[in-house]
Structures are given as structure tokens and as C-alpha cells.
């Protein structure tokens, strides 16, 4: 690759220097902030020598380069008047307000999804037990299970307060105290009387705060500024007492008098407006939403719908948008299944089938990025399948009555409700899957050539030597956690094998150790990515999490320096799992052999299940051995 020429072509194809607001790079890709993304010629860009692919993430346009990204980046800076910036530096410009809103919503709601998903599934199972007479709704067992299911939703403001406070950078326990005050039984009883209420002479508007979303978000947002200001003007010796006391005394009354009622009214009218739209032009609304939901997910805009969905369920009792997400996922599963039926590439057929199954289970990224988007036409078929199911849902008024958290087959208790809602829901899911399968099969696609398969061979053949044979060393696991194939990584750079072959690990401990004897050739400033070259020539990338470069090193601690000589088991980096997840980032960690072309075979010791750091992970068969 001629780095200078690559850089010049990239500058031209992203719309020229005048279209570049800023550019930074991470371990594998260039990250552009552009004034007008419509000026980008993605087709030609992906054909440029040295460009492995492109990706659009929120407001950021990304060009995947691989190991040579620092060199291409330097050439871009050298050929323009752009300022060289580290991805660890915060930009002076203000973030687009829409992007900022999505970032906040994602950061607040993603960490709490397990709690409300678990509670929602319990409510679904309980509804099944009641419907089929397995359990009496007056039994003590039913009452206890009902408390399990309802608890997270009744005290939703309390859960949201902790998550929102972390996102806004304030004390989560003060946030919890604010929510607890709004939900206090004595205050609830005072509101229930129905008589006028005042606080130091100021009128307090009666409102219900249990199971609400918007009031507590507004309250914690205000609290973050109040707490920060009080903290700045208070002497260090008094902060422990003064900061929380004054924050509570200011924020809770302000919420009760103004913010809380405003948030409640806003949430109610938002739900009423959306439900009015679906009830009056339901077919059209459902077709449009179901047919475009996969695109919405790709842009990250689905996070903006999350609080509306939760508010609809907790306040109104049902929601029309969650079913659209189910249909979109079934469409992706059906399109990938069609690829399995039609593809002649045996390894890609296997990938298509496995990703179709995971999409049926509600995890669509492997099918969407690894198969359908990659082949283009199947993705269009998936959208058509979603729209077809949406037409049926619109005609039959299918709604979600339980917040299950999974928009796949495990989440179908979501549809348990009155009359034929559950039966119609199952029919609609089948329609989306079948239509997407048929359309994708009929319109066809340009198949992946046999030699383009990116899955690793299952076993060694002949008398080839592995790296272990050559040096007494193998590639061991740098992490403790659960093994996943790369196809399940929610980033096409890794899931499509663009960076090379390997595996991914979902860590259960925040410690990264060296997988080989060798040298640290790259330790990125944000500490999320480590490049190692083994003594036997294997070039290994350990990329902790997805998009964690945005954390700028927060929650990471380094234990070695770039250039250090390491052996298997040496600690490289440690990280705070809960802290990273609280910011809304995935921790799935790809371990990639970036010079995969140098090996005839890359064989995982196992492809699923748990693994301890230091355990054998994979072996490499070098060419000519």
C-alpha cells in the first residue's frame, strides 16, 4: 500500500478537505466528523487500495484500515491543513444535539435493561400461568412472583435515577435518594387524598411518579448541575454533609413543584399521541416502522424510542413499537436463512444459518452485518419482510403488553394480552420470516467466493506444524470469560473478518494478560486496544469492547508500556467491567490474528463455553511448515 496515495484518495472521496470537520484514528480505523455525509462516495472508497471497509456510527464516518491506520492518518494530516488530534482529546466543537440526546438515552437505558427484561419475562410467565390455570391469582406464590415482576417497574424511577446519575456524572446514591423521596408512601398517600398541597407556601402539583420515566430523568439532570455547583463552592471539609443535604433540599421540592408534573404530562401526551397514530392509521404506521426498524437500529436511533416504549408499557399498559422491532428481527433472520439455502460457499452457508438462528433469538447484528448488509440484496429483502409483517400487525392491532427485553422468540410472552393478540403476534412473526426468506431467495445475491470465507478451519490435517510445535508456545486466552465466534461481534470490522481470523471473549474479569511470548508493538492511548507480535511472528490484536475508544481511557489501567517484552500470563491492562457497561458500551473482546494470511490454518481449541485466562485458545499453522 502506498500510504500517501491512499490518504489522497480518501480525502477526495469523503468530499475533500473542506468537508472534513475533524479526523482521528483508533487501533483499526479512521474516524471522520464530516459536514455533509452525502458527499461521501462509499462505493469507490471501499475499492481504494488499503481500505478494508467503511462504517457509519452515529455522526461519525469510519474508514477501516487495519494495522497501517497510523501511517495513513499521518499522510492525511500531511496533505491537509487539518489539526492532528488524539482520540483521547475532547473536541472543542459542540456535539450535535441529536447525537448528544441519543448518547444520553443509550447511556441511561442500556445498563438497566437486564433488570426490566428479567422482571418483564417474569410478568410474561406469570400471565401464562394465570391464563392456563396453572396458578391462582390469589395464591401466596402468585403474589410473591407478581412482586418480582412488578417491582422493577413500580420502582423504575429509582433504577433510572442511579443509571442517569452515573451518565450525568453525579452521585448515583444522591440520585437514588431523590427518587426514593418521590416514591415515599407518605407522599403517595398525601397525593391520594386529592386536596390542595403546598410546600412553604408554593403549590405542589399532584402527580404519580411510580413507573414513570421522564420526571426522574429531568430531576437527575437538574440535580447533576446543582450538585456540581454546590461541590465547587463548598470547602472540602464540609462537602460530605453540605453537598448531599443541599442537593436534596433543592432538587426534590423543585421536582415536586415544577419538573415532576411537567415530565408526567409530557410523558402522558407522548404516549397518547403515538397510540392515537397507530390506532387511526395503524396499518401505514406499522408498515413504515416495521419496514425501517433495522435501519433505525443501524443508526442508533432506536435508543430514542426506548423511553417511549417503556413509558407506554408502564403507564398505558401496552405499546405498538415493540412489535415492529420483533418483525424487523424476523425479517433479518429470514433473509439470512435464504442465503443459507442459496449460497454455494459451504463456510458462508454455515455462517448464514448460525446467524439466522441467533436473529430468531433476538440478536440480529451477526445476521445483519455479517450476512445481509454484506450481500446488500438480502438486507432489502429483510426490510420487505418486516413491512409485510407490519401490514398484518396493523390490520389486527397487535400490541406488546409486557416489556420482555428480547425482541426474538424467547421474548414472545411480550404479546400475552387480550383476545387474539398472542395468536396474531405469532402469525405476524411467521409472515415476516417467510416473506423475507422468499424475497431474498428469489431476487438472489452475488455469492461470496469460496476462498473468501473467513471462518477458521475446524481441525489440522497432515503433518503441519503449529506455533506450539515451532516454539513450545501457543496462543493462550488473554481473558477469563465466555468464548464467542467473531460473527457475533457487533461490529462488521470484526464480524466479517476484515481484520483477520480469531475469536471473541465476553469477559467476566477485568484483567488482560499476554497470550504469547513477544513484544508489545502498540498500546493505544485509550488503553482499549493492544497489539502484540509474538516471537514466532504472529501479530495479535486484543480489542477490549466495542467503540470503547470513546471512553478515552476511563475505567482502564495499564500495567506495561509500549515496547515491553512479555510472556504468556503477564498482566497488560485491567479495566472496570461495571463502569464500562454503565456507560452503555459492550465488552465483547475480539482477539484477532491480524496477519491471518501468513497462516494456512487458524484453529480454535474450542469455539464456545467458558475459558480461563492463560488456557489454550488457538493454534496457528504457518505457511510452508
Structure explained in plain terms:
By secondary structure, this protein is of the alpha+beta class. The chain has four domains: 3-93, Gyrase A, domain 2 (2-Layer Sandwich), CATH 3.30.1360; 155-274, no CATH class; 281-452, no CATH class; 467-622, Glucose Permease (Domain IIA), CATH 2.70.70.10. The protein has 21 helices and 20 strands. The two termini are 27 Å apart. An eight-stranded antiparallel beta sheet has the order 15-11-12-13-17-9-8-19, with no helix packed on it. The protein is 49% helix and 15% strand. Mean pLDDT is 81; it is low at 86-95 and 451-473.
Strand content: 5-15%
**So what's the oligomer here?**
single chain
**Structure class:** alpha+beta
| Whole-number total of structural domains | 4
Q: Helical proportion?
A: 40-55%
As a whole number of angstroms, the C-alpha radius of gyration is 26 Å
> Helix segment count?
21
List low-pLDDT spans: 86-95, 451-473
User: Order of strands in the sheet with the most strands?
Assistant: 15-11-12-13-17-9-8-19
**What separation lies between the terminal Cα atoms?**
27 Å
Number of strands: 20
Domain PTS EIIA type-1: 491-595
Keywords: Cell membrane, Kinase, Membrane, Phosphotransferase system, Sugar transport, Transferase, Transmembrane, Transmembrane helix, Transport
Subcellular location: Cell membrane
Organism: Salipaludibacillus agaradhaerens (Bacillus agaradhaerens)
SSE topology sketch:
Elements: H1 3-13, E1 20-25, E2 29-34, H2 42-45, E3 53-57, E4 60-64, H3 69-78, H4 97-109, H5 113-131, H6 140-154, H7 156-168, H8 172-182, H9 185-193, E5 197-199, E6 202-204, H10 214-233, H11 239-280, H12 282-299, H13 302-316, H14 321-342, H15 346-360, H16 365-375, H17 377-396, H18 421-443, H19 467-471, E7 475-476, E8 481-484, H20 492-495, E9 501-507, E10 511-513, E11 518-523, E12 529-534, E13 539-543, E14 556-558, E15 565-566, E16 571-575, H21 577-582, E17 589-593, E18 599-604, E19 609-611, E20 616-622
Antiparallel strand pairs: 1-2, 2-4, 3-4, 5-6, 7-20, 8-9, 8-19, 9-17, 10-16, 11-12, 11-15, 12-13, 13-17, 14-16, 18-20
Helix pairs in contact: 1-3, 4-7, 4-13, 5-6, 7-8, 7-10, 8-11, 10-11, 11-12, 11-13, 12-14, 12-17, 14-15, 14-16, 14-17, 14-18, 15-16, 16-17, 17-18
Domain PTS EIIB type-1: 4-86
Active site: 26
Domain PTS EIIA type-1: 491-595
